[in-house]
DNA sequence: TGTTCATATGAATATATTATCATATGTTGT
DNA sequence: ACAACATATGATAATATATTCATATGAACA
């Protein structure tokens, strides 16, 4: 299915060779970040462009503090980036990996 | 970076459009499964081919019960498949999504 | 400087998750 | 039918995680 889209199988095999125990734990840590519905929702909101905290709270219909706590986790994992604009903090996806990883997950679910 | 490998950006954008709240929760559930070092280790062992439970326990140097509990979670998420062979249960990766998802995660970490 | 708006953070509680232990189930061979 | 082996499962205890509440920080502006 991935190959169907031209994703290089040899590259994948290379990527998953010779992985140390530490790297495996880092990987688990990364996926753990995706493994929470609040955080996934935040990422989806940011798919549509950058947003400030209040906008994210409104989109999720959630408490500002809860959202900020999760934003911190996403920032720490470098999945999102932030910059200040006056009083507001603007958040955006850090790179395209986020979209790709989530798209692959969605493909799996849809089968 | 993903595009560099020929992964179709339009396809990705389509995959992440119009996602319901339920689908987002399912996605989070899926990633949660990847988000544990024991389970990631099991998946990596299975990258090298199918294995029975005892072999997986040896590879991970872990208690059989702990491994079986995690195998169940991986089975439920359809990330691995099992079949019986005599007394033993043989486990294998269910499909290539697993490799692809993990490879994408690894790419992210390596930057 | 004081007030308001926007966001971040610490502490506490509630909930979820994992590994362990004990035991059950299922298979093979005697 | 019974013993030995392989795996699964239920209950428990230890740990991790998310949300809430209260409060702190920081920017803008009168």
Tell me what you see in this structure:
Two copies of one chain form a homodimer. Chain A has 111 residues and is α+β, with helices and mostly antiparallel strands. Chain A has a domain of 77 residues: Arc Repressor Mutant, subunit A (Orthogonal Bundle), CATH 1.10.10.10. Chain A contains six helices and three strands. The N terminus of chain A is likely disordered. Chains A and B meet through α1, α2, α3 and α6 of A and α1, α2, α3 and α6 of B. Chain B binds a DNA duplex (30 and 30 nucleotides) through α5.
SSE layout and pairings?
The structure is a homodimer of 111-residue chains.
Chain A: H1 9-15, H2 21-34, H3 37-47, E1 51-52, H4 53-60, H5 64-76, E2 80-85, E3 88-93, H6 97-109
The structure holds a DNA duplex (30 and 30 nucleotides).
Keywords:
homodimer, 111 residues, alpha+beta, Arc Repressor Mutant, subunit A, 3-stranded antiparallel beta sheet, 6 helices, 3 strands, disordered N terminus, DNA-binding
Number of strands of chain A: 3
Q: Which chain pair has the greatest contact? A: A-B, 51 and 51 residues
User: How far is the N terminus from the C terminus of chain A?
Assistant: 11 Å
Number of helices of chain A: 6
Q: What are the secondary-structure elements of chain A, in order, as H or E?
A: HHHEHHEEH
Largest sheet of chain A: 3 strands, antiparallel
Strand content of chain A: 5-15%
Coarse structural class of chain A? alpha+beta
Radius of gyration of chain A: 16 Å
Poorly predicted regions of chain A? 1-6
Measured as a percent range, the helix fraction of chain A is: 55-70%
* CATH architecture descriptor text of the domain at 34-110 in chain A: Orthogonal Bundle
Determine and state the CATH class of the domain at 34-110 in chain A: Mainly Alpha
Find the CATH topology of the domain at 34-110 in chain A.
Answer: Arc Repressor Mutant, subunit A
Mean pLDDT value of chain A: 90
